[in-house]
What does this fold into?
Amino acid sequence: MKFFDKDPLEETFMRLAENELYEVVTKEVMQGQVIAGIWGRAFSDVEGDMDKAKALYIKYRIQDIKDRAASWIAFC
It folds into this structure.
């Protein structure tokens, strides 16, 4: 039986990497440089609430970056 299901160092690395993604995406939002499709989805999902749309955009955009990275790795 394994003591840890996941490697604690790997979990730490993943949290640090995700923090970097939050920084990049937050800067995108603050500068108004958003991806229209992702912004539209977030805005629609919160029925036009601008503050909630910004928060949801960040979540969706981070997942978008992760998905693109995973697909790129799978492609290579």
